[in-house]
């Protein structure tokens, strides 16, 4: 909303105006702020040091008759109007200042919330600043004291939310609270909204962060949620809001936004519990290419090699990649890089590191037939991309000589060399002593190292107290784009399709992120903020869907291996495989033809340990259920694979599973032709599936848009209007175009409750209707016996060919 020029220079305004649009008409809001401006003009912009302790009472101009309305436009009693507070109400937020209050109606409630405006002199700010000096209450030897700027000290001392105590609500309780509205039995005193404005521009806020203010550092950190951040030189006016909503977890949140709302709102959550707040070791430095960081990484690697049994399991085949890069450093600087055919080395096996990175669209240096011989003499350092130079430097600083990089160790213009090397990916990453991941680089020019503000990466203690009774209040920007982040904060590297198998197959990965450096291995994780190894607890029940959903892809592959090696049945590891597929399909590929290559090494690893075979990316032993994969939203098709394979779909997918012992039964049969597979590639020569089942002619109708903008569709039977009584919903693989000739192919039926049917939506690929292509899946609820008889009573099964 617009703030109509408030605040003025030299004043600090506090207001719960952010959500007032919900209870006031636009005209009322405009009138309110106009009257507030007139009232503010009665105050001097600064107060001399010899001014009396107590400011004079507001002039009559501060009083207004603006009425606040409920959402239903019913006026409140006359007492709920703007006016001057009593002496007892003074000092709630700003000591020694007069304030105006307004009672604001809450949705669905006759109670009102306090609306506070206040003005504070510069001398009063200095008095409050002296009360806002905080240090840590424990572990003082291992942390730095918080440093705050003058404005943040004032906010900390005056924000009402920072005086909240933990709620008695249970930690696992579920509640819904709408800002500006009623929330059950929650007290009106448990909510407040205050907006402070002290910096005239974002540039001043960024300057305060660079000068060492911990809270400003958190507020100006890059927004992990993908909002548009204000640039450091922005002249836009800044508002800092403290929005209190007391709960078990914390007292509320702090936000910043510019007055014109041109940039995204940055949110910092407040917590009662004490999170890890150590600013130590390499995290003290603004750069991640320090000696302290390399020593920390060496410690992680040494601990892993010494104590982690799963990570120590090394191949007994003395495997080495066909080629590696030999790197050398002089005085801490990269001095030489040389391509070495490993067959020519004087020892059968040497420890090497591997690089996982985004290629991007830039023309990076590559190994081609014409550079094979020159690179064996010397790879020009000046032509190496930043990712490559940093990875070579990391290799040398960790004490190793050899590094494997795909674009420099595989001959890129040789189909024969690619055909030999790509299937070795599982061994290349699996046998590397360590994989370096350029996590935060969008392309090869991004590099591994970053410059960061360490204060933006750890919590700030805003209220000190007894941590045992949760009396402390912390501000924490915990949504960081680390290795396990998803959604909008998913790091650039993990949006690349090739990296899924690189990450899953590597025993140990050192992630160089945009915020800090992370460690990930088969048994533990760590980071600069939490340098001690966090050991993972492995579930003994790998068929548990919760376990399959929560584990990372490195752990998922490891659990799949353990289950298969112990003789586990299909049900014990198939969820883990689909975890990997879902993660893979959430990423992108530059070339569609790489759809299989980019996961083939991972698939072959799964084939080898399970002793089962894939057919166009689906398991041969379970083709019936495998073809009912579901896309999360309509995407694109490619001609690389048949329509019934998820390899043909560009977008994220997930598996559908049915309990045939719990009421589901099959309505069709699925068979593949008797053709042989392409050797060791998980694909098949034939693209056909033979399906025998019921086929119903249907037509599609768009019914609505969901909250996230994805269209929803319904199906209707063409032959009989009574079919409209059935609740058909379908998820198209691609958005339907024109008048498609569609058919529904029921595959699975539930006999429990009102019943449901899952099946495939198909369309003919030619006029003869001899072959069909999958275009989506459907879910049908039938309501009575008549509907069941309508579909299956007199129908006969028929054969179709799915391509």
UniProtKB/TrEMBL annotation:
Residues 352-502 form the Heterokaryon incompatibility domain. It comes from Neoarthrinium moseri. Coiled coil: none annotated. Residues 69-92 are annotated as: Disordered. This is Heterokaryon incompatibility domain-containing protein. It comes from the Eukaryota.
């Amino acid at each position: 909303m617009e703030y109509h020029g408030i605040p003025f220079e030299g004043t600090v305004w506090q207001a719960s105006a952010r959500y007032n649009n919900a209870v006031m008409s636009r005209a009322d809001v405009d009138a309110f702020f106009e009257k507030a401006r007139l009232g503010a003009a009665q105050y001097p912009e600064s107060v001399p040091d010899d001014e009396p302790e107590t400011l004079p009472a507001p002039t009559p101009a501060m009083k207004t008759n603006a009425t606040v309305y409920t959402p239903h436009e019913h006026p409140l009693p006359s007492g709920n109007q703007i006016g001057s507070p009593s002496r007892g109400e003074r000092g709630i937020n700003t000591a020694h200042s007069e304030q105006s209050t307004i009672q604001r109606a809450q949705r669905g409630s006759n109670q009102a919330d306090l609306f506070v405006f206040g003005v504070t002199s510069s001398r009063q700010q200095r008095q409050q600043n002296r009360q806002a000096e905080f240090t840590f209450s424990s572990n003082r030897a291992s942390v730095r004291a918080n440093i705050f700027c003058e404005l943040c000290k004032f906010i900390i001392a005056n924000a009402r939310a920072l005086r909240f105590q933990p709620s008695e609500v249970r930690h696992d309780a579920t509640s819904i609270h709408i800002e500006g509205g009623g929330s059950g039995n929650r007290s009106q005193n448990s909510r407040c909204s205050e907006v402070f404005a002290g910096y005239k521009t974002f540039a001043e806020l960024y300057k305060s962060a660079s000068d060492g203010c911990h809270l400003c550092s958190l507020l100006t950190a890059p927004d992990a949620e993908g909002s548009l951040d204000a640039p450091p030189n922005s002249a836009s006016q800044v508002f800092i809001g403290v929005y209190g909503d007391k709960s078990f977890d914390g007292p509320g949140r702090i936000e910043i936004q510019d007055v014109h709302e041109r940039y995204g709102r940055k949110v910092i959550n407040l917590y009662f519990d004490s999170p890890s707040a150590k600013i130590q070791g390499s995290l003290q430095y603004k750069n991640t290419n320090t000696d302290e960081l390399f020593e920390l990484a060496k410690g992680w690697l040494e601990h892993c090699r010494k104590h982690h049994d799963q990570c120590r399991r090394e191949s007994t085949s003395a495997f080495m990649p066909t080629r590696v890069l030999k790197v050398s450093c002089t005085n801490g600087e990269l001095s030489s890089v040389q391509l070495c055919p490993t067959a020519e080395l004087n020892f059968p096996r040497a420890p090497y590191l591997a690089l996982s990175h985004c290629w991007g669209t830039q023309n990076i240096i590559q190994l081609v037939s014409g550079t094979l011989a020159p690179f064996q003499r010397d790879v020009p350092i000046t032509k190496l991309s930043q990712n490559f130079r940093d990875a070579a430097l990391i290799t040398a600083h960790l004490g190793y000589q050899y590094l494997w990089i795909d674009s420099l160790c595989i001959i890129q213009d040789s189909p024969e060399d690619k055909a030999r090397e790509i299937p070795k990916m599982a061994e290349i990453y699996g046998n590397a002593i360590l994989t370096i991941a350029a996590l935060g680089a969008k392309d090869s020019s991004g590099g591994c190292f970053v410059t960061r503000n360490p204060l933006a990466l750890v919590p700030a203690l805003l209220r000190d107290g007894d941590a045992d009774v949760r009396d402390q209040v912390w501000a924490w920007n915990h949504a960081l784009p680390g290795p396990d982040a998803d959604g909008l904060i998913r790091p650039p590297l993990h949006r690349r399709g090739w990296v899924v198998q690189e990450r899953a197959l590597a025993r140990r990965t050192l992630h160089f992120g945009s915020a800090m450096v992370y460690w990930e291995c088969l048994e533990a994780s760590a980071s600069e903020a939490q340098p001690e190894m966090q050991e993972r607890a492995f579930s003994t029940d790998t068929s548990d869907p919760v376990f399959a959903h929560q584990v990372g892809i490195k752990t998922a592959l490891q659990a799949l291996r353990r289950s298969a090696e112990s003789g586990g049945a299909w049900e014990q590891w198939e969820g883990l495989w689909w975890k990997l597929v879902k993660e893979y399909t959430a990423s992108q590929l530059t070339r569609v033809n790489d759809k299989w290559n980019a996961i083939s090494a991972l698939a072959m690893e799964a084939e080898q340990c399970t002793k089962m075979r894939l057919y166009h990316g689906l398991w041969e032993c379970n083709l019936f259920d495998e073809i009912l994969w579901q896309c999360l939203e309509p995407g694109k098709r490619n001609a690389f694979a048949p329509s019934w394979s998820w390899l043909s779909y560009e977008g994220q997918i997930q598996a559908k599973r049915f309990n045939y012992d719990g009421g589901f039964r099959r309505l069709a049969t699925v068979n593949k032709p008797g053709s042989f597979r392409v050797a060791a590639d998980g694909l098949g020569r034939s693209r056909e599936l033979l399906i025998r089942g019921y086929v119903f002619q249907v037509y599609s109708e768009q019914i609505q848009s969901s909250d996230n903008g994805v269209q929803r569709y319904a199906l209707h039977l063409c032959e009989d209007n009574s079919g409209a009584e059935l609740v058909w919903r379908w998820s198209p693989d691609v958005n339907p175009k024109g008048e498609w000739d569609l058919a529904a192919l029921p595959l699975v039926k539930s006999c429990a409750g009102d019943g449901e049917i899952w099946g495939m939506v198909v369309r003919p690929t030619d006029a003869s209707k001899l072959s069909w292509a999958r275009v989506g899946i459907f879910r049908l609820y039938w309501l009575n016996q008549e509907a069941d008889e309508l579909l299956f009573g007199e129908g006969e099964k028929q054969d179709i060919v799915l391509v």
